[in-house]
Amino acid sequence: MISGSVTEAKQAQPRPIWPRSDKVGLGFRAATAADLPFLSRLYASTRMEELAVTSWTDAQKTAFLDMQFQAQHAHYQKHYPGADWLVVERAGQDIGRLYIERWPSQHRIIDIAFLPAHRRKGYGAALLRDLIDEAWLAGKSASIHVEKNNPARQLYVALGFAVVEDKGVHDLMACAPPGGWYVTG
Questions:
Q1: How far is CA 30 from CA 4, 34, 165, in A?
Q2: Bridge partners, 171 (sequence order)
Q3: Cα–Cα–Cα angle for 129, 6, 99, nearest 5°?
Q4: What is the pLDDT of residues 87-117, one digit of tens each?
Q5: Where are the domains of the chain?
Q6: Backbone angles phi, psi at 98, to 5 degrees
Q7: Which of 94, 97, 107, 168 has the fewest CB atoms within 10 Å, counting from its CB?
Q8: Which residues pair with 172 in a beta bridge?
């Protein structure tokens, strides 16, 4: 949760070692309330293409994106109370976010996003491989909801994720350990 005591408790816990992420220079820190403006800008950057086709003014787009970010943030906080809310850093700059919850049956990647200048540089692939390895070492699947038109979907498929449930606009995709199976949770 991005709020005082829970964030402080999460910060006190040791972080997993993610060697591929480390190799490409990624660092991680617990998100705090002070990060909300950055997280909102990051969210907006993931929606700009779809809003480019509207006839809305910049002010209307900004208001809509702010409202959508607030709704998404509230949804995530409510439905994933035990998650790690991480800001991704590189070379001292905030470049993305990773939200992940580790359930008994699976590791759910709630959200992973990078600013446009940091996309398609291999950071996402490195981090996702680390997350898959972490889940598999725990004997679990890694899973994520992916919009059907998300360009990153190709990366998920290349890394071994497969659709396990059609959710309409989204698909639930999972990457099970070799010889394993996906368990809903």
A1: 11, 11, 30
A2: 146, 166
A3: 25
A4: 999 999 999 999 999 999 999 999 999 999 9
A5: 4-175
A6: -135, 120
A7: 168
A8: 145, 165
The residue to which tokens 């996402």 are assigned: 124
17's CB contacts (< 8 A; 6+ apart) are none
Sheet containing strand 106-114, strands side by side: 26-30, 84-90, 93-102, 106-114, 141-147, 170-175, 162-167
pTM: 0.88
Q: Does 3.90.550.10 match the CATH number of domain 4-175?
A: no
Q: What is the pLDDT of residue 35?
A: 97
State the pLDDT confidence band at 182, using cuts at 50, 70 and 90.
Answer: low
